[in-house]
Amino acid sequence: MASNGIRDRVAIVGMGCTKFAEHWDKSASDLLVDATKEATASAGIDLKAVDAFWLGTLFSGQSGLTLSRPLKIDYKPVSRLENYCATGSEAFRNACYAVASGAYDVAMAIGVEKLKDSGFSGLPNSNSVGDGTRAGLTAPATFSLLAPAYGKKYGVSNEQLKEVMTRIAWKNHKNGALNPRAQFRKEVPKDTIACSPLVAGPLGIFDCSGVSDGSAAAIIVRAEDAHRYTDRPLYVKALSFVAGPAAGPIDPDYDYTTFPEVVASAADAYAQAGIKDARQELAMAEVHDCFTPTELVLMEDLGFAARGTGWKDVLAGTFDLEGELAVNPDGGLKSFGHPIGASGLRMLFECWLQLRGEAGARQIASVARGRTLALTHNLGGAPGECVSFVSVVGSERS
Amino acid sequence: MRGLLACGAYVPYARLDRTSVAEALGVPAGSGTRAVASYDEDTTSMGVEAARAALRGARATPEVLYFATSDPAYLDKTNATAIHAALDLPPSTMAVDMGGAVRSAAGVLRAALDARGPALAVLSDLRTGLPGGADEREGGDAAVALLLGEGDVLAEPIGHASLTAEFLDRWRVPGESYSRQWEERFGEFAYVPLGERALIDALKEAGVTAQAVDHLIVAGPHGRSNKRVAASAGVRKEALVDDRTGVIGNTGAAHAGLLLADVLDRARPDQVVAVVSLADGADVTIWRTTAALGARRGRGAVAAQLASPGRVAYATFLTWRGFIRREPPRRPDPQPPDAPAAARAEAWKYAFTGSRCQACGARHVPPQRVCVKCHAIDRMAPERMSDVPASIATFTVDRLAYSMSPPVVVAVVDFEGGGRFQCEMTDVDPKSVKIGDRVELTFRRLYTAGGIYNYFWKARPIRGGQG
């Protein structure tokens, strides 16, 4: 398989991100206008300068009109796409390719989700049930399948595992508390997290990401044009997206302790970016911590920890804001919230702030010490049947 | 010789303690328990379970399937077709309902005995009544399936009598959730002479005396009449069969057949079994067991299903039966299955038929066209998986998902010999589930949406002593 990548061919020159919250007073259209305004202002351009648009949303609208109608975009290409919870990243990836191809000079990727209008706990159902034979699991239940399997395989007791999950939630809430755009802005004591009401398996309510509304956007141009817009662009080093065969739920060889799709997309992205040791080379990573066991498993799948040892690194603080490799410095899905179509771009927004030294109270020290690369990881689906996206962006063009 | 080739019984897992009704409602305390169909069961699904037990190891394929119940899941649509599909019977096997009244069971048995070719009689009932009433307390839920045909039979019918009479003992208007009953002593007045006379006639036809009867079964919705007819039959005291109502309750249309299956579990060859059914008349069949019984004893294993650890709280029972409407979770309502999709998937949805790759041997549950292992395309052969045991690879307890009886336990199960599936578990204590636990499949009603019952399979802990 050839995956050639477009390393250093395109750059992000402006970004916007709304606060993620229960926006009872804003529609999806309002959120799209807000994110667009901020992104274009950040790039110093008028909306008219954007040649083509990619809009990611899972539930909050269909077709390009979802974006062109509120923004009054005059007769330009607007693609609306979805790829489960990796929807925002997918919008970004396609916009990057369009610019890299030379088809357009300036593209905007934007994601939005308006989840709170449904009135449901968790996510609404999206699909017809067909013949009615699929087990109707909620999202936390599917990801909770990871916990007992991981514990059993690596000899981690239920109590130890709960401590690991609790620490991941505690860390992400601690980071989110420093982030004015996050949905939840309070540190949460470990006892509160550990004793929260159970939702699925060992997952309490604090092991689940926030259900929220929000939007985020990025302006993408050719790398050679980037300095026309900003002194500190972010260069796209790698974009990898894979859909797995969804074999996990039907193949007894799948053991529910890994996402093979993540392993594949990470290997592809590292090859494109020329990364040999992610833990040593990255300044930070934004990963898809939809539920706390997901972040644990991702630490191993992304190569940040050896198999079966991720839980020890979590407990040792390796992935804390001040740790060896900061993971989810903006608070992650856990405390920033997870408006599905927006999340992938929200992750990039944190890379944008951190690598440019604009992250304020949560600025990572390793950037000043010379680390220039950041990773985003975004997945959609469930263990054993998911889509996975990994990007690497950097503040220097090699 | 035409007779009984095989039988299978199904008593649901849950029991309701009669004292719990008394405690909740302040009514006189009953004693013992009754069997309770779970929230995910109905007469159709229980009928499937009984029929699976009857056909397991049977050599004959039914050419006709008769289904009797007083509580049909659907009207205007045949319920027996779902049983037919779950058993993977050929389309040429006719499946019909004979529903509405308890007496339908006696009619089904008679029709199955009179049929040509192997005939499967499935008797299933779900008995309930208004809270605090006798039907709620004394009723029970169960199913039994009897395969009748020519060949190496377990028992042959040697005498029969049937008396029909029109009188009002109990009745239910369509749409009502409970039955009404006339004064109990009137029913006694009507039933007892009918039962006594029919038994005498049947014994006469069989050419045996009451003293020669080894097992006397008297069943029917009118408990006092059953006892009186049994007491006046003139059989030996040890021939009086425990009617099991103290443990499972009176299971209506299923009861006479269930007690026959129970007796055949312990009867010896060449014994006389008299079965008296009192329902809108009296129907008696005298059976003589054969030497084949010894070799194939215990297939129904009714006794093993009587004692169950399952206990349902009275409030939960009332919820399951629709008498308490509970606050639903803040989740989307379940969606009904699409009829065309369900029809396309009939072999999978109803008979739990997966596929096996003919190129590499990998099993697929549900069936696939492209092999997950070797990627061969369209090299699959169908493979029924409903009787293949499995073990739990991982599991979760979903407290957010919609259910009549939360929380939902979901397990990823790996089948012996290959194949994996993710499905709901039932009849299980969420606290006791462990990786590695062995499970078996059971046909259930997952949920009801838009007036459509979504039937499919779940996993349950392997039941001891059954099958």
Q: pLDDT below 50 for ≥5 consecutive residues: which ranges of chain B?
A: none
* CATH fold-level name of the largest domain in chain A: Peroxisomal Thiolase, Chain A, domain 1
Please state how the strands of the largest beta sheet of chain B are arranged side by side: 1-7-6-4-5
The total count of strands of chain B amounts to 22
Helix content of chain A: 25-40%
Q: Describe the oligomeric state of these chains in a short phrase.
A: heterodimer
CATH architecture of the largest domain in chain A: 3-Layer(aba) Sandwich
The count of strands of chain A amounts to 12
Q: What's the number of structural domains of chain A?
A: 2
* Mean pLDDT value of chain A: 96
Task: Output the CATH topology of the largest domain in chain B.
Answer: Peroxisomal Thiolase, Chain A, domain 1
Structure report:
- The complex is a heterodimer of chains A (398) and B (467).
- Chain A starts with 9 loop residues before the first strand and ends with a strand.
- With 398 residues, chain A is of the alpha/beta class.
- Chain A has 14 helices and twelve strands.
- In chain A, strand 11 and strand 12 (385-394) form a beta hairpin.
- A ten-stranded mixed beta sheet of chain A has the order 3-2-4-7-1-8-12-11-9-10, sandwiched between helices.
- Chain B has 467 residues and is of the alpha+beta class.
- Chain B is built from 14 helices and 22 strands.
- In chain B, the strands form six sheets. A five-stranded mixed beta sheet of chain B has the order 1-7-6-4-5, sandwiched between helices.
- In chain B, strand 4, helix 3 and strand 5 (94-99) form a beta-alpha-beta unit.
- The interface between A and B is large, with 39 and 46 residues.
